[in-house]
Amino acid sequence: YTKSCVTPLIGAVPVWVGLAKWNKALNFVYPGTERCGPGNRSTNGHRHSGQSISKCCKQHDEAKDYILPYKYHEKSKLKNSNLYTATNCSDDIKFFSCLYNDSASLSYEFGQVFFDVVHVPCFAHTFPIKCKSYSWGKCAEYEMQKNKPKQWQFLHAPSFYKAYTRRWFSDNFTVLPDADNSWALACREDNQMNCSQYDFVQDAAKMPEQPWKFIA
């Protein structure tokens, strides 16, 4: 899919391509890596390749707080109804950041497949999120209900494709923000999440200076 691709310089990974390529070897380890799989799939004893992306995946594999597929989390009582392991958002955010800061095309591709295609949520203890305003029958703006008690809940990552494109291709492309109900909103609004320092968290909510020049 990407090995022989020359143009365009960037592009979103189609869902069917991402899923088909992920399980190409029937082991759910992403091609070109030794330990990058869904959730926090660990390959204990497998020799580490030393690639940047494999280092990111190794760190994520070693997360201690997670919920196996179709199991309950002892502390939060949340049930993971997904096919893949759900991890505490603190570890998913570090994983997102690790891939985001790696300029290799494989990190760009795998980050999209993990966060945008498979779309496995993470879980966190934070304020409830609700829709603040609608446009054309869809939520246009979300907000955190800080007047209500915090609760354990599942959250999704912001678009990895958009974040990475802003990070590495901002000279050529501008990306419009989405209505934000991801953990990026929780990071900005809840200091106890301890993740507001990441630039992709702040950039996710910014309008571009030249909104007529956008890709998504």
Brief overview:
The chain is an alpha+beta fold and 216 residues long. It has helices spanning 15-22, 52-61, 89-100, 105-118, 160-168, 183-189, 199-203; strands at 66-67, 86-87, 122-126, 129-135, 138-144, 151-155.
Describe what this molecule looks like in 3D:
It comes from Ornithodoros turicata. Its cofactor is Ca(2+). Pfam families: Phospholip_A2_2. Residues 30-125 form the Phospholipase A2-like central domain. It catalyses: a 1,2-diacyl-sn-glycero-3-phosphocholine + H2O = a 1-acyl-sn-glycero-3-phosphocholine + a fatty acid + H(+). The protein is α+β, with helices and mostly antiparallel strands. It has a domain at 15-39 and 49-123 and 152-175 and 197-203: Phospholipase A2, CATH 1.20.90. Helix content is 30%, strand content 13%. It contains 7 helices and 6 strands, in the order H-H-E-E-H-H-E-E-E-E-H-H-H. A two-stranded antiparallel sheet has the order 1-2. Helix 1 (15-22) crosses helix 4 and helix 2 runs antiparallel to helix 3. The longest helix has 14 residues, at 105-118. The protein is globular and about 45 Å long. The two termini are 21 Å apart.
Layout of helices and strands:
Layout: H1 15-22, H2 52-61, E1 66-67, E2 86-87, H3 89-100, H4 105-118, E3 122-126, E4 129-135, E5 138-144, E6 151-155, H5 160-168, H6 183-189, H7 199-203
Using brief descriptors, characterize the structure shown.
216 residues, alpha+beta, Phospholipase A2, two-stranded antiparallel ribbon, disordered N terminus, lipid metabolism, lipid degradation
